Amino acid sequence: MNRLSINEVLACLNTESDGLSPDEARKRLARSGHNILSGPNRISLTRGPVRYFTHFLAMLLWIAAGLSLAADGMNLPPRPRSERLLNLPLLPRAYIFLGMIEAAIAMDGFFLYLHSRGWTWGPPLAWSSPLYTEAPTATLAGIVLAQVVNVFACRSDRHSVFQLGWFSNPLILRGILFQLSVFGLLTYSPMGNEIFGTSPLPFRIFGPLALGALLLLFAEERRKIIVPWAKNHYAGTATQPAGTS
């Protein structure tokens, strides 16, 4: 178009140098509508990271953790018939205790990445900024790393992962390798960026995210020590004969 003469451009647009007549303008308005540019598809800074909590990679590791817990439980004495696999004590542990820690890791990664790239509270972020895809990708990375550690931490609700062994279940190791490979493709391949709205991340962001994931492991290991001790202590106190100290 920039190589055409003025008359050729006017002919392509089916108009004249003095503009459209009122009748022609009304016809084109009825046919094509107002000449308004549609707004860009913006990724919400709040909804962007939240959607990654239901990402299929995160769900895959949740399933792997549940299967590992069930498989390791087969090596223990049988459960009572009245005890369900999904019971009331499991729900607070999974969705409140571990879930809140994982959410904190992911959101800390989100805001840490924004601040590391110069973002501050107040001025709105331009829709064309690469942070709109990079920061939510950092959230996904935090979820993935936390879920990798969570798979090991949740292999048993009573026994430490250091007792079970890190490499004693090869299926978990294969699943984690597959999951990390898929995450790498989604994050560092143009096709993954285009389909899933992700962006490549600098490797330095994985250090704080990995530290947060290790804190999740530490918290769960401490829970496995404190909860049985508290139950035994309470049971001993409740069965103590009256008049004894």
Name its key features.
245 residues, mainly alpha, Calcium-transporting ATPase, transmembrane domain, 2 domains, elongated
Which helices and strands appear, and what pairs or packs with what?
Layout: H1 6-12, H2 22-32, H3 47-51, H4 56-73, H5 90-116, H6 131-153, H7 161-164, H8 170-188, H9 190-196, H10 206-239
Helix pairs in contact: 4-6, 4-8, 5-6, 5-10, 6-8, 6-10, 8-9
Under CATH, the topology of the largest domain is which?
A: Calcium-transporting ATPase, transmembrane domain
Q: Which second-level CATH architecture of the largest domain applies?
A: Up-down Bundle
For CATH, the homologous superfamily of the largest domain is named as Calcium-transporting ATPase, transmembrane domain
Q: N-to-C terminal Cα separation, in Å? A: 96 Å
Could you tell me the radius of gyration in angstroms? 28 Å
Q: Give the helix level as a range of percent.
A: 55-70%
- Tell me what portion of residues adopts beta-strand conformation: under 5%
Which ranges are low-confidence, i.e. pLDDT below 50, for 5 or more consecutive residues?
none
Count of structural domains: 2
Please tally the helical runs, counting DSSP H or I stretches of 4 or more residues: 10
Number of strands: 0
Question: What is the molecular shape?
Answer: elongated
CATH class category label of the largest domain: Mainly Alpha
Order of helices and strands: HHHHHHHHHH
Question: Structural class of the helices, strands and pairings?
Answer: mainly alpha
The whole-number mean of residue pLDDT values reads: 76
What profile does the largest beta sheet have? none
